[in-house]
Design a protein that fits this description.
Largest sheet: 5 strands, mixed
Protein name: DsbA family protein
Shape: globular
InterPro entries: Thioredoxin-like_sf
Helix content: 55-70%
Order of helices and strands: EHEHHHHHHEEHHHE
Strand content: 15-25%
Strand order of the largest sheet: 2-1-3-4-5
Pfam family, one: Thioredoxin_5
Distance between the termini: 18 Å
């Protein structure tokens, strides 16, 4: 049994791809796993994502608008989690990212509400809880966890094995399918590629926490 924590920018360019990669690989390998979305945001994560999008030759909205969009998505996620549960909140983020991963210039102030409608959720009900203390407390708890594990980049994936919760593996950035397979079923790859972990550590892509 694995427990996976995925720290993401709520509208980050690579976050949608890595979320789908993890979901698909878990199904492919038929391994027992539960995973948690931990959306976080700060000015460095926002600037980094803008840089990535420009590198991919995307049209990029101005920084102030991007910051507003990220903050709105974060608040909506926690409000949906409170009113409808984790599954619906993850679906909201996943759908929003799917719409923006190739072109964030498509963002407009109505888009989050449109996604909420597509998912059959009640926008008024969601908005009604945003002014409560719960939303800020929930966001703060996720930020506290990120600080505890020294999460500095998004996306970052943290994997724990049930029988060894004292030590987790942290991977920053994108994650290749074969690398994820090697981590979830290590006996398959360690025999074939004994230098797998050495290579990932040397690239500063993986560390123990």
């Amino acid at each position: 049994m694995y427990e996976i924590f995925l720290f993401i920018n709520p509208i980050g360019i690579y976050c949608y791809d890595i979320e789908k990669q993890i979901q698909d690989t878990i199904k492919e390998l038929d391994v027992d796993a539960c995973y948690h979305f931990v959306p976080i945001t700060n000015i460095n994560a926002i600037k980094e994502d803008v840089f990535r999008r420009r590198k991919e030759s995307q049209n990029v909205i101005e920084l102030s608008k991007y910051t507003m969009a990220t903050t709105r998505a974060l608040q909506d996620y926690h409000a949906i989690k409170l009113t409808y549960g984790n599954k619906k909140a993850r679906k909201f983020i996943f759908t929003l990212q799917q719409k923006l991963c190739k072109d964030c210039s498509q963002y407009n102030i109505e888009l989050p509400g449109q996604v909420i409608d597509e998912l059959g959720l009640n926008l008024k009900k969601i908005n009604s809880v945003k002014d409560g203390d719960y939303i800020n407390d929930s966001i703060h708890q996720d930020q506290k966890l990120a600080e505890q594990w020294n999460i500095t980049k998004t996306p970052t994936t943290v994997i724990f094995k049930e029988n060894d919760e004292s030590c987790g593996i942290l991977l920053e950035g994108t994650l290749k399918h074969d690398d994820l397979v090697s981590l979830l079923i290590p006996e398959r790859k360690i025999i074939e590629q004994p230098s797998f972990y050495d290579k990932m550590f040397s690239n500063n892509h993986l560390r123990l926490i």
